[in-house]
Amino acid sequence: MPAPTPQRILLSAAAALLLGIAVITAFNGFSPDYPMRLFQGIAVVVAAVLALAFVASLVTGSLANWRTPESDEEFEELVERSERLARQGSWGEGEEDWEELDDDDDDDLIDPWNEEDFKAIVRSAIDELPLEFHRALEHVAIVVSDGGRRRGAYGLYHGDTVARDGFADRIIIYRDTLLRDFGHDIDLLRAQVVRTVRHELAHHLGWDEDGVRGLGL
């Protein structure tokens, strides 16, 4: 996941400033000076939009029946399990024996440039994860987007991590950049989608960018 850009930091600071002005306006009323009154009006509108977005995120989390791990021990067990699998290079090996599929035959039927086929590749990458990680992703929305060029990334995690109770979590897989760099080879594309899903999952489990790189992702 890319580090916050200066533009994002400035936008956050501007939003905080407008929110503060909106609060002051709510207590003291609008200024008689027209330019200041206009600025206060903009601040109030922005604050209302942010409030609605916050409420929407809470509702989404509630509808998804979001909950944190039942105990600290449960969370630590999940983290230790993921570390062990990463060290062993066995993120994609489940506890059960799965019937082997003929990947060559499947590849003949898949057009990665087709939106539904690309989503199928993402679903396959998720299915390869051990069952413990399926549980960690149970209430995480997996979104396919074409905004990767703008962010310069293959994927993005947005949320509070599995250890915290906050905004609804999302993992975004950027189709445009993945297809741009790996669309010429279906095997390379599959491998990078798998790597991207695991990279963002590691962020959901609590690792920062340095920690994720330490896992080889």
From TrEMBL:
<keyword id="KW-0472">Membrane</keyword>
<feature type="transmembrane region" description="Helical">
    <location>
        <begin position="42"/>
        <end position="64"/>
    </location>
</feature>
<protein>
    <submittedName>
        <fullName>Putative Zn-dependent protease with MMP-like domain</fullName>
    </submittedName>
</protein>
<keyword id="KW-1133">Transmembrane helix</keyword>
<dbReference type="GO" id="GO:0008233">
    <property type="term" value="F:peptidase activity"/>
</dbReference>
<keyword id="KW-0812">Transmembrane</keyword>
<dbReference type="InterPro" id="IPR010428">
    <property type="entry name" value="Zincin_1"/>
</dbReference>
<dbReference type="GO" id="GO:0006508">
    <property type="term" value="P:proteolysis"/>
</dbReference>
<keyword id="KW-0378">Hydrolase</keyword>
<keyword id="KW-0645">Protease</keyword>
<dbReference type="InterPro" id="IPR038555">
    <property type="entry name" value="Zincin_1_sf"/>
</dbReference>
<dbReference type="Pfam" id="PF06262">
    <property type="entry name" value="Zincin_1"/>
</dbReference>
